[in-house]
Write a structure and sequence with these properties.
This protein has 266 residues and is mainly alpha-helical. It has 9 helices and no strands.
Length: 266
């Protein structure tokens, strides 16, 4: 009987986490659309970006609203971007996974906050080639606040992680500037690396940035080899930073295992 209650409680908690994740994804859509345009994320309320008609509460249900409206605005019938339900669904799945890894703990809160910031940064950078200060500055404050859960050690860990992020991305910034005779990386990337470092500490920040640089390098080589990009074209680095951060959030144990196996080979 107790096992059945425990099992039911876990399933209920997963549903709660999923609902919270979908709602968070809906809020991220607001951030992704409005921050690059320097608009308030509070006022006005949700509205169609084409005709400005307010979105009804029943139409604003994450994912379900898009399906019920058949992907079109109720007022003007303008197609709604697939980005909206996609961000909501992805965020919902991420929150469920983070819950199963951490439970409803402060670690869950920290990992969820970082995942949300990374997803928003990646989506904004893909479209606008910027990572707004209005995202990274509050992200730093949230990371610093959550680092208190480990007391003074958490503060020191966060500072060290942030410095690692700035150091590595600054080196990449100046190497790119020397190689290409122009800025190959924006300050927004460096600030996002700092945020990642404050959240995860020096070791995992190093791992996240190494993975970001590796994935970004492979992507760049493929793009050059296939002729889709030339060496003079800019490529947003935010999505690669997000990839490195997601790997650290979701695959810590696997990364540790691979590192241990590599060290055994030395």
């Amino acid at each position: 009987m107790n096992n059945e209650i425990s099992h039911f409680g876990f399933i209920a908690s997963v549903f709660i986490a999923g609902f919270f994740g979908l709602s968070l994804g809906s809020f991220l859509n607001v951030i992704i659309y409005r921050l690059p345009r320097k608009e308030s994320i509070v006022f006005p309320g949700s509205h169609c970006t084409h005709c400005d008609s307010p979105i009804l509460y029943r139409d604003n249900i994450p994912v379900a609203g898009f399906i019920l409206l058949r992907g079109k605005c109720r007022a003007c019938r303008t197609p709604i971007s697939w980005r909206y339900p996609l961000v909501e669904a992805v965020t919902g799945c991420m929150v469920i996974v983070l819950f199963t890894l951490n439970g409803f703990t402060l670690n869950f809160a920290a990992d969820t906050a970082l995942a949300a910031i990374l997803l928003a940064a990646a989506m904004i950078d893909l479209k606008h080639m910027i990572i707004p200060n209005r995202l990274t500055y509050p992200g730093t404050l949230i990371a610093a606040g959550l680092s208190f859960r480990w007391g003074l050690d958490g503060i020191v860990r966060g500072i060290q992680g942030g410095l690692v992020g700035i150091f590595i991305l600054s080196i990449m910034y100046y190497i790119g500037k020397l190689m290409f005779k122009k800025e190959s990386m924006g300050m927004g990337d460096i600030k996002l690396a700092f945020v990642i470092g404050v959240f995860v500490g020096p070791f995992w920040c190093l791992i996240a940035l190494v993975l970001a640089i590796l994935v970004g390098g492979i992507f760049g080589i493929i793009q050059l080899a296939t002729g889709k990009k030339n060496i003079a074209q800019e490529v947003p680095f935010g999505p690669f930073l997000a990839t490195g951060g997601f790997c650290v959030l979701f695959f810590k144990s696997q990364i540790i295992y691979l590192i241990e196996q590599y060290l055994k080979m030395l």
